[in-house]
Amino acid sequence: MGRPHANSFERYDSRDLWQKDKDHYIHPWPAFEEAEKGCLVIAESDGAYVYDVDGKRYLDGIAGMWCVNVGYANEEMVQAMADQARRLAYYSPFSDTTTAPGAELAAKLAEIAPETLNRVFFSTGGSTANDTAIRIIHYYNHRRGRPEKKHIISLEDAYHGSTFLSISLDGKADDRSAFHYVDDIVHRISAPNRYRRPAGSTLEEFCDLLIAELEAKILEIGPERVACFFAEPILGAGGVIVPPPGYHRRALEVCHRYDVLYVSDEVVTGFGRLGHYFASQDVFDVVPDVISCAKGLTSGYAPLGATLFSDEIFDVVSIPSKNAPLSHGFTYSGHPVSCAAALKSIELLARDGILENVREVGPYFEKQLANLLDLPLVGDVRGSHFMMCIENVANKQTKELLSYEANVGQRIADECEKRGLMVRPVGHLNILSPPLILTRDQVDFCVDVLRESIVATSDGLLREGLWQG
Ligand SMILES: Cc1ncc(COP(=O)(O)O)c(C=O)c1O
Q1: Residue 64 φ/ψ region, left for φ over 0, alpha for ψ in the -120 to 50 degree band, beta for the rest
Q2: Alpha-carbon torsion 287, 289, 294, 295, what sign?
Q3: Ligand 1 probe mutation, 165, 268, 307, 389, most atoms within 8 A of CB
Q4: Ligand 1, residues 122, 155, 157, 160: which to mutate, most atoms within 8 A of Cβ?
C-alpha cells in the first residue's frame, strides 16, 4: 500500500510544527521527562496505518487511543460527517429541540444495546459519560426518596476518565497523587487480576474471594448508602485485566441483592473491540442497569459519549418535578456531526463484516502474541480479541517488576516505533488495541516487530545493568 496522498507531506514544515507543539501544547498525561525530545507529529492516515509529518508509515497497533475502530480515512465516514455539517452543523439539544442524527442514534443505540437499556443521554466523551451515569443515578435515588444512597464502589486499577468526578473513581495508583479527589463517596475493592491472584489459588477460588469482598464492602458502607458498582468488562488502561469466569454475573447478582445499580463502563469494549457492539451481555452474560460508552462509538472521527439507562431508571427520573429538575447536560450533548459519524460507524461495523473480522482475526492475534511468552522479559500476555496487553517483568517466577528507571514499556514502544509499529506503553506494560480491520498479515507484522523490539530492549537493559536477565 502506497502513501495515501503521495505529495501531501511536502506541505508540512515538520520542524516548525514540532517546535510550535513543544512551545505551546500541553498534552494529556504530558511526558515532561522527555520534553526535550518533543512529540512525533502524526499527519496522515489510511486504513490501519498512520503517517508522520515526514511521510514515515506506522501500523497503528493502538487505533489512536482504543478508538479508530473502522480504520482511518474511511471515505464514507468523511462523507457522512461532511453531509451533516453542510446541512446542520449544530443545534441546541436542550429541553425541547433535537436533531435528526441525535434522534436516529438514540434509537439505534436502544436497538443494539442489551434488552432494557432503551434511554440514552449524550455527552462529549468517556469521562463525561461516566459523570453522567453517576449524576443521574444520584438523581434517581433522590427522586426515590433515598438521598443518602450516593456511594460508589469501583475497582483498583480501573480507569474511568479524567474529569474531577470520573478520575475520583480511578484505581490506578499512579493517577492518585497530587490532586484532590471526591473521596467521601468513592470506595475501591481489589482488581480481578488473575495474573497477580494469591499464589496457589484457582480461578474459581479467586472469583469467590473477589465476590465476597464486594459483598463485604456493600455491607460495611451500608446497602442503604451504596448507589452503584462501576466496572469495565475488561479493565483497559489499568492493564487489560480479564476477570475470572463468572465474575461480572456474580457481581451483578450481589449488587441487585442489595438494590445497588451495576454500571458497565464500555468506553473501550463497546463497538466491536471484543467482536460485538457491546460486551456486557454478548460476552459476559450480564445486563447492566447503565452502560457508558464513547471512543469507538464514532470510531474516533468526532468526540461523543453516551450513557444508556434502563427503563426502570428512566421511569423514575422522568417524573416531572418543579423543585428538583434534572439539571445536567452539555452544549455538545448529541452533537449532530458526531451523531452522524456514530450512525455511519455502527452501520459499517456490521455491513463491512468488521465485527466478524474481530471474531475471526482476534483469536489469531491472541495466539500469535502468546508466542512472545518464550521471551525472558515477558511475564504475561493477556486480553481478548483486539484488546491485548504484554506484561514485562524482571523475573518470570516471582513476577517481580523492573525498576522505574528501566522504563521498560516506553523502551519497547520506542523500539517498535523505529520499526514502524505503534504500541502503547503504560508503566511496565505494552498495550495493543488496533483498528478492527486488522488482517492476519498485519497481525504477523505486529508480532514480529514486537519480538525484535523486546529482544533489542532486553539487550539494552542487560548492557546498562538495569536487568539481570
Ligand atoms: C474505560 C474508560 N472509561 C472512560 C475513559 C475516559 O474517556 P475520555 O478520555 O473520552 O473522557 C477511558 C479513556 O481511556 C476509558 O478507557
Answers
A1: left
A2: negative
A3: 268
A4: 160
pLDDT in tens, 256-307: 999 999 999 999 999 999 999 999 999 999 999 999 999 999 999 999 999 9
Which DSSP state fits 232? -
| Model pTM score | 0.97
Over residues 396-411, the mean pLDDT reads 96
Contact 49, 59 (CB under 8 A): yes
Beta carbons within 10 angstroms of residue 128's beta carbon: 26
Helices 440-463/354-370 angle, 10° precision: 30
Strands 151-155 and 226-231, how do they pair?
A: parallel
Q: H or E element: which one contains 117?
A: strand 117-123
Q: Please state whether beta strands 57-60 and 290-293 pair in parallel, antiparallel, or not at all (unpaired).
A: unpaired
Positive or negative torsion for Cα 390, 409, 401, 231: negative
Residues in the ligand 1 pocket, defined by CB under 6 Å: 125-127, 130, 159-161, 232, 236-237, 265, 267-268, 294
3-state helix/strand/coil string of 263-300: EEECCCCCCCCCCCCCHHHHCCCCCCCEEEECHHHCCC
CA distance 446 to 417: 11
Q: Which amino acid is at 338?
A: S
Count of C-beta atoms within a 10 Å radius of residue 16: 11
Among candidates 440, 428, 308, which has minimal Cα distance to 363?
Answer: 440
- Size of the chain in residues: 469
Is the CB of residue 289 less than 8 Å from the CB of residue 297?
Answer: no
